[in-house]
Design a protein that fits this description.
Strand content: 35-45%
Helix content: 10-25%
Radius of gyration: 16 Å
Largest sheet: 9 strands, mixed
Mean pLDDT: 88
Distance between the termini: 20 Å
Number of helices: 5
């Protein structure tokens, strides 16, 4: 594996991404399944900086910064990516954990995720991309509230895989954190 150019890597990957013993970039992340009063889920559509024709839907969230816990990171990421302000106590869970291996910016990356649920009233919100970083402005395309039936029929990739069913399973959470294992995306 070639050594990445730190100028390119730093421009795309933040400081929370660190090389593991195998050289693969990795980070811990917190994600939020944001649900509205109609059980719709808010998702982000993005694309790869190196493959702009490939896009996918995914839950709101991102890397856990140094000194943060997963709840604090989840609340911060929701605010930055959507403009929605939550408190850590608004989060339920983590309802899921998982490890994702994916390609981005010509690198294979590993992300260890904790997924929470939060409820908001979409009628009370104005979504905002004002908190997006320069990289997010380059690779994030839109925020959309998805009805679960429509989401289950989407033709582009959705992460985590089977998200509509995963959301249905936690509409009323039983208190058990489910481990989704390793996903190659």
């Amino acid at each position: 594996m070639s050594t990445p150019d730190p100028q390119v890597t730093g421009a795309v990957f933040g400081p929370e991404w660190v090389p593991g013993p195998d050289g693969m970039l990795r980070r811990r992340a917190a994600r939020v399944i944001l649900l509205d009063e109609h059980d719709r889920v808010l998702l982000v559509r993005g694309h790869d900086v190196d493959a702009p024709d490939r896009s996918w839907w995914f839950t709101v969230g991102g890397g856990i910064d140094a000194g943060e816990d997963a709840r604090t990171a989840a609340v911060r990421e929701v605010r930055e990516e959507t403009g929605i302000v939550l408190a850590p106590d608004d989060l339920v869970g983590p309802v899921y954990t998982r490890c994702a291996l994916f390609d981005f910016a010509a690198r294979t990356c590993r992300q260890d995720e904790e997924l929470f649920v939060a409820r908001v009233r979409s009628t009370d919100l104005a979504l905002s991309a004002d908190g997006w970083t320069d990289v997010e402005r380059d690779v994030l395309d839109e925020l959309v509230w998805w009805n679960l039936d429509d989401l289950s029929r989407v033709t582009i990739e959705v992460f985590p895989a089977g998200l509509a069913g995963l959301v249905r399973d936690v509409l009323v959470w039983d208190g058990t954190t489910r481990h989704l294992g390793l996903a190659r995306e």
